[in-house]
Amino acid sequence: MATTMATRHAATRPGNPRSRRPGATRRRTRQRLTILSFIAPALIGIVIFFVYPLISALYFSFTKFNLLTPPEFVGLRNYQNMFHDTNLIKASENTIWLVLVMVPAQVLFGLGTGILLVTMKRSATIYRTIFYLPALVPPVAGALAFVYVLKPGTGPVNALLANFGIEGPQWFNDPAWAKPSLTLLALWGIGNTMVIFLAALLDVPVSLHEAAALDGANAWQRFRHVTLPMLSPVIVFSTITGIITTLQFFTEAAVAASAASGQATNGGNSVSTLFGYPEGSTFTYPLWLYVKGFGYNQMGYASAMAIVLFVVAFAIILLVLKRSKSFSGEAS
Amino acid sequence: MTALATPARSHRRAPVPPPRPVRKRRSKEGPLLFIARHSVAIALSMMFLAPFLFILLTSFMTNTQSLTSNYWPTSWHPENYIAVFRKTDMPKYLWNTVLYAGLGTIFTIMSSVPAAYALAKLQWRGRQLMFLVVICMMLLPPQITTVPLYSLWATYGLTGSLWPLILPTLFGDAFSIFLLRQFMLTIPNEYLDAARVDGCGEWRTLFKVIWPMARPGIAATAMFQFFYAWNDYYGPFLYTSENQDNWTISLGIASFRTLHAVAWNLVTAATVFAIAPVLIVFFFAQKAFVQGVTLTGVKG
What we know:
The complex is a heterodimer. By secondary structure, chain A is mostly helical. Chain A has two domains: 3-45, no CATH class; 86-323, Orthogonal Bundle (MetI-like fold). Helix content of chain A is 70%, strand content 1%. Chain A is built from 15 helices and two strands. Chain B has a domain at 89-296: Orthogonal Bundle (MetI-like fold). Chain B has helices spanning 31-58, 79-87, 90-121, 127-139, 146-155, 163-166, 174-185, 189-197, 202-213, 215-231, 234-240, 249-254, 256-259, 264-296. By secondary structure, chain B is mainly alpha-helical. Chains A and B meet through helix 1, helix 2, helix 4, helix 5 and helix 6 of A and helix 1, helix 3, helix 4, helix 5 and helix 7 of B.
């Protein structure tokens, strides 16, 4: 922080003898009001759209609530019911599958494409743009495009495979292939992860590589002992944040399921029948939360699910906060 | 860590600009490695581009051809795009999306810039705490607060409209505040001190000194916010499902096929409508993006 600001701050600190002067007090009050005027909108936003809903969700999670009649206190019943909810168990399994398969796949693919680009020379710019483009595509459009491209009967991919005499899988229409198809979709949109790794790879000093090469290290050894250690914070960071993103995986799963099943997502009641297609294989935790709350009007139960999600996500966020420098509150 | 590279927000699909051109490396590689490397890159490029190409080609097909496994149109039908506009609610969806993304972006910048300034450049008690809360807001899944917020908007009769998505942006957006703060941290304090010595109030300092210097960052933040709203599905799905008049383009194309009983040729044409604006903006603004990010160097 600048020196002037620091002195001014010191001067306004209570207990500092200089601040007892009347002029200083008035200035201190003015400064406080100014700062308040800067942050007031955001503070109101935090209270109304974050603190209140969090507390409210905790309260609703102990009630039976359907939006229309006032919440009715039921104690821990919602939480107890979660253990017997087979759909919830299925949805949690699917979300865990995505965390265990999709997140590592994204990290590895992002790292791989990043390494490929960093070793290219003049042509890197054009490849980088091409690799990045899908990350811009709206998730709904991407999901629709993939459902079309991976159509079982006449889709381009299976038509291509048929040319080689291979019978392609049913992709989004096969319970065993639906989640791998979603993973392919996620890998298609790897752009952001790739850029993070590319930036980190460019930060690895060339001199380190040269020194290692002089010592007789081959390409793999240089990668293993020079590049990888310098990348490990980025790998950890993108894994952790990837998990947080995957915990809220909603759009692609919902759109792909309804597009592949040939039914519309009109929200509300209609959703409960078509989400998760085929056979619940694309049901994720947030999808089931939505269906319980807005399909079945069980807002209390949905809130209990939200609280469980909060506990898990918050624990992971604490990991991020510990790990990342850019999240540390210090301003200078 | 690069601040722009917070992948937790990748559900926003924030277009992180690619970093600077790749630094030169010593090249002692043989032609074999060169060919291998480019083969992989070309193969990957084809895989990344193929979905775009198939969508585009199919959008020019006839209704019946789009149901076959031909991938090249036997005859070209640009009128599919006119049909999408005439026969469906696409103009309405587009207008709603522009409204949500446009107003939301303006409001976000208005409310987030002062807060980011206070977090980056002013000393006050509670600053650290507020910053931590902003980060939690940014990272926590939106589904956690869905039920209470929906019931809040329902009591004011605003569900079914886009207002539950637009109005909150008047009160700051966590991701934008975070991003703008990171940008503002890189502005040297000497400029602020000079302004203060000249008797500039904090608000005047913000608009006369900070705003012009943070312009690339503000532009980038505005674009992220615009793209986020343009691509958003969960929000419009939650609040406007019940009222088709207020659907956005994401919601529209998601149920396009069944709603309008059309074949894939029109669905793909509608999808092009959703993708094209984002790509066009990106190509025109790419430079501003890269500039904004590299100039203000969002290293935390």
